[in-house]
User: Fold these one by one.
Assistant:
Number 1:
Amino acid sequence: MYFWKVLNEGFKSKIRNRKISKTIEKNKREIKFPVLSEIRTCGVLVKSDTYSDKLFEKLNEKVVVEKLFFSDKNRDKGDDSNVIFLSDMNFWDLPPKSLINEFVEKPFDILINLAFEKNDAIDYVVASSNSKFKVNTLL
């Protein structure tokens, strides 16, 4: 039984990584470094257990910041549209497009991944994003 579980996880991981790679290929673009004084919109991806509003207090005065949180918990009855829960993931352990489309279609001036650990779901959102400039920790 354990052998099949390990084999299945390895297979899912391989397919998940291929999906992320294909998404990166599909969204190839010319990288343009942003001029700091011209940044008006910022998207932030973060694990909900490591986030603090203090990170963006000064930035919020001049830049519109939108956050998408990732939680290792299961979704309750509440509708947190800016939180992707573990229970939301599809078979490949990636967030379904219906939950991330609104966020990834926004052309943020800069997108920042603040999850300080490897997370394929967040890497997938970064790869899918239409942001002009992306800062990802491990992609």
Note: The chain has a mean pLDDT of 81.
Number 2:
Amino acid sequence: RGTPPKTGDTVLLYKWGYDYPPGWLAIVGLILIVVGFMIAPFSLALPTMANLGSTIAGAILKNIGFSLLLAGGSGGGAANLKHGNVLYSMDTAWRYMESDKIDAKPEIKDAKVVSKKCIKRILGVCILYMDGFDRYFIGPNYVHPVEKADFPTCKVRGRASACFKNGYRVDFGEEIKFIVDPTRPLFVPEQTVALDRMHGHNLPFNIMVNNARDKGIKYLKSKKPGGSLPGGFANGGKSFQKNDHIGEAISKGYFLPLMGTLEDVYFEDAEDVNGKEIIMSAAKKYALCKNLTQCGAEGLEDDLTGFGYLFESTSEAEKFSEYAYEIHYKWSHITKEYFMGYPLATLDQYFQMVAFNMKLVGSYSSSRAMKFHEAANLYQQDFNNRLSDYNSLGTATIGLKSRNLTLSKAFYNQFAKLNLDGETNIEKFDASMLTAQK
């Protein structure tokens, strides 16, 4: 017996079962068949026994076939789990890899809900039983958690690795890689790099996966057996458990986006997107631009600038554009595995690099701020010293009055008494000034 899991993508496909005789009846049925045929021509006194044997044997043969009579047994047990063919699986949504050790491919599971129920009796003796199952489709399901209700969420009938909108293929030598969820920087034409949909299509990848799953469910439901058993169960026979309907569906393109016809779009191929040239051209334009609005950027404030005040030549801008593409665009969006989907190989490293550089810049700024603070303290100390000198003249005070300094009458009176021939006693002059200040 069993119940379907409460998590993931679980769908009840249909109810099915099979019938079978009790084990002892199989043996008795064979004996009665033999006895019935042996005594029927020679004795009319035993018609009841002969008819009973033929009736029981006929019922058994009609319902389950002679081969099952020889096998006997009561059957039962949950159906074997059937996986789709790995060769046709979607690694993006199901992530079946030896390194991952997690198999999320969809499967079919039968939950046994009826066990050895008698469905036919003769003279009060049960001659036919049935087992019944609820057949479920079980697949992966992911919903991105969000804190705000108005924030768009990703819902995909697959693993979290399939939660993306668009992807482009970019190979590194013989390694297959992809750019997932690319961005569109300033000065990149809108029609060249798709953001919210797969390139050349109208839907994002996660919605394509969901639509493919829906078609696959319809196909699986169409495989419901045609026979009938009591309780609304379809009679598929015991051999029905051996069918690999998931494998059949995947081999025919079900559960695959666009029935398995979705093709890779090469980002750096001039015939597909020519994305490298487009991104580098936009970065070069940004490097030489002083006013973004005047350079053609839309929806920005008028006073925003590019790097035009930093780069002095076209060759410098070209080197910057190559750096911007390889590091800030391609490297930060490249996939870790060979399939199109998360996780990304260098996203954490990229953010760590950005954080390190921000910290480095912050350290420089902090050092400069400390030096500026030290210089400000020295300036304040010098200003205070000068202020005391100004106050000694009896006129300057803190604030605007320190401007346009004027001398007092006491100073002029004492200054007039100075003998410019060198006979003046400076000490007496200072003493007289202090007396005048009082």
Note: The first helix runs from residue 23 to 39.
Number 3:
Amino acid sequence: MEYMCSKNEIVNLYFKAWLEYDLHLIDKIFTMSASYIILSRKKILRGKKQIETYWIRNSKRQKNLNLSWEVNGEFDDCAFTTFSAEFYDIELESVVSINGIISFLFEGNRISSLSEYYKKTTRCPN
């Protein structure tokens, strides 16, 4: 029998996976047919394979990641968070700061849809 996680625990696992670029956790917390919607970029990733490919790319380009988040609300099958991230982007050769919101929809113990919107700023490294 699978352990039942709270929505808050699943959200925290998502951010832990981001901090550690942990594909094993991504596999555990998303449904096979999950959607990952990046509203800021008008991009939709469909299915766990596309999500994993996106994460692999980010793990190679995001260095010295600092990340914070807060769960702002949980409802029947959804949760909402605010987050801030800062990292060195090796492709842009810049420090990137991101502030945004994420809504999570759940099917049981897994994320079936994630929608994020963020504002991004870049600056030259010191």
Note: DSSP finds three helices and six strands in the chain.
Number 4:
Amino acid sequence: ISIVTTVLQKHQNKTSVNTALPTSELWERVQQDQWWQIDNDAIKREAYRNGSFTKLLEKRRGAKPQEAWTRQVYSLPEARKPLVQLVVRLLATLEMVCKDPDANVVVRMNNRDDFKAAIQLLEHVILPSYCNIHVEGNLFDDYDQVEPYPSWSHWDN
């Protein structure tokens, strides 16, 4: 069970309703969860031990299918950081713009706190869990300055 599922279940049990949880609240709760902190520390140690993500690609070239897709987390190479920054910005923008009426988690339109939280959830939860990538340090220097695509001025109009 992922940390997001755990936090959502606690939220729904507490409120006894199926209301969507804004990403800013979800990120706050994830950071406070002691189990996530333990898992996050373990991911960091594993990524440090495994080294760069490029090692995974080299390892997969000659491996059998079962060996090629073992679940290990690797560090994001600095050269790939701009690409991952763009992908994360685009995904967070899509989450903000496209609304799912059945969603449990929502990035509210033009809500900068939700957008920033969506970026951090993608970086700290989705990338390690589903993409086998850990970002050393932070993906962005200042999360308050990260803009959707196109920029906030487009969405504010």
Note: The first strand starts at residue 21 and ends at 22.
